Amino acid sequence: MSWPAAPVPCPCGSGAAYDACCGPLHRGERQARTPEELMRSRYAAYALDLTDYVFRTWHPRTRPDDVTPAPGLTWERLEIVEAETDPGAEVGVVEFRAHHRAGGAVGVMHERSRFERRAGRWVYVGGDLLDPGAGG
């Protein structure tokens, strides 16, 4: 597995360098502090083909056996629409648009994702696709 070296920008779109943003989460140096931070790190993991991280951060009750992305799919940009989490909460919601390209066609995955705190760490539970006619 090969992680980007600093100071490349993080694929999650935060504007921070990868090594100061999602890199420590991907390497297991720390856990996501909020559902939004977990969402960003999962997007970056998809963009960097770090499917083991995607698998580990998915609730075991809802995750599929295989999280391998579709062949030829390139994630290009993440847009956080809204993040809802109260301090000390055990659940959170993040609405996002993930822009991608596959075989020359562009698309957008628009989802409202649900997260839970499990054993002190945030995990992805599932989501509802929004705007299904928007290409994703």
Automatic annotation (TrEMBL):
Give the Gene3D superfamilies listed for this entry: 3.10.450.50
Annotated ranges, domain YchJ-like middle NTF2-like: 34-127
Q: Under what name is this protein listed?
A: UPF0225 protein CLV56_3379
Similarity annotation: Belongs to the UPF0225 family.
| Pfam families reported in the protein's UniProt record | SEC-C (PF02810), YchJ_M-like (PF17775)
Q: Which domain of life is it from?
A: Bacteria
